[in-house]
Each structure stands twice: as C-alpha cells, then as structure tokens.
Amino acid sequence: MKMNQDINHTLKLIPLGGLGEIGLNMMLIEYGDSIVVVDAGVMFPEDHMLGIDMVIPDISYLQSRAEHVAGIILTHIVPEIRAPIYGTPLTLALVAERLKEFQLEDLVTFVTVRPQETITIGPFTIEFIAVCHSISDGVGLAIKTPFGTIIHSGDFKIDHSPVACQQTDLNRFSFYGEEGVLALLSDSTNVEREGYTLSEREIETYHG
Asked: Within its chain, how far is the Cα of 181 from the centroid?
C-alpha cells in the first residue's frame, strides 16, 4: 500500500542500537525533512566496561539533524533534542520521574496515547497496538509512511492469560498483515528458543 510518494525523497530506517542485543533500542524513521524516533533505550554495561554506568546509542547522526525531529516515542536524549514525547500513561509516568531526578521535566512536552489510538507526526500516521510484555502498558506501532506500512512490534510476548498486562492484539497485527506491510521490525527476547513461555497466570498459580 503506497501513499502520496515524492520521488525526490527516500524512506530511511536507521537503527542506532538494539539490533542483536538486549537494550539500547533506537530506530529512526526518516522521510524528507521529518524524523520520528522510535525507542531510546539504554543498556547495562558488560563486564569489560569498567567505570561505565550506562551505555547509550551513538546519536551523532540525530544530533546533526535535530531540527528535523518531528516526534519522539520514548527517549533519553531530552537535553539535546526538543520534540514531543509520545507514550502510554505508565510509560510517561516512569519517564517523568526519571526526568525529575535531573530537573529536566520542564523541557519536554508529553503526549499520552493509548492502544487503538492513531496520531499523525509529520508525514507519518501511527497507530498504537496493545502488546503484552513484562511491564504493563506496552504497545507496538503501525506506522503508515508514503511508501507503505511499517510494523514495529516493540518487545512483546504472546500470553493469553496475562496478569500484569493486556493481551497482544493479534487481530490488529493480522489486519495489517492482510492489508500489506512494507517492513516488519520485531523484537521478542529469547524468540530463538523453541516452545512456549509459561503464562503469567500459570506462574502465579504455581507459586501461589
């Protein structure tokens, strides 16, 4: 599915971290003069990184194009790049508390979103899709671009009887699958392992 393309522009997916590693997630989606930042994670240091508390992505490319950032969906780069931050209620609450530690809460604009809501950021139309994860309020993204739809699953698991989160909205992901997807960006820890993860409900019952 293609929208209004401009042959003078290229759609770019630029990962700055998070591929093949746990944490450090950051993906830029760029079209023309508009950039949306999806995730901005940190990673705990490895054993050989002595004296380092946190590892963050290399954002030099993003710094060089800071004026083109149309929106940020969760980020730790607030002091350097000013753009609205979009997230679900729990996610923004956690981010706000973190920013207060560094007196940065007045530098940002928070925009609360919820699953099944759709927003427009620059040339992108983004739908938030409920996903189940180890923390509540997780979402995946359906990002409509001038060249087609990108699905960004976020980190997720399939649990049909979760305790602390909503079920992953497989129906909505299926809808986009049938409609046509340009690219699927998917993240699920230990997905290479065979079998199924126990449901949170089963674990609760077992330990109860």
From this structure: 18
User: What is the DSSP code string of 133-189?
Assistant: -SSSS-EEEEEEETTEEEEEEEE-B--SS-SSSPPP-HHHHHHHHHH--SEEEEE-T
Torsion angle of C-alpha atoms 203, 139, 185, 47, degrees rounded to 10: -60
- For 118, the 3-state DSSP assignment is strand
Q: What is the pLDDT of residue 77?
A: 58
- Give the pTM: 0.81
The residue with greater pLDDT, 141 or 78, is 141
Cα–Cα distances (Å) from 60 to 10, 74, 178, in that order, read 20, 18, 38
Supply angle C-alpha 99, 35, 77, rounded to 5.
20
CATH number, domain at 126?
A: 3.60.15.10
Q: How many residues does the chain have?
A: 208
In a domain, 1, yes or no: no
Tell me the average pLDDT across 6-20.
80
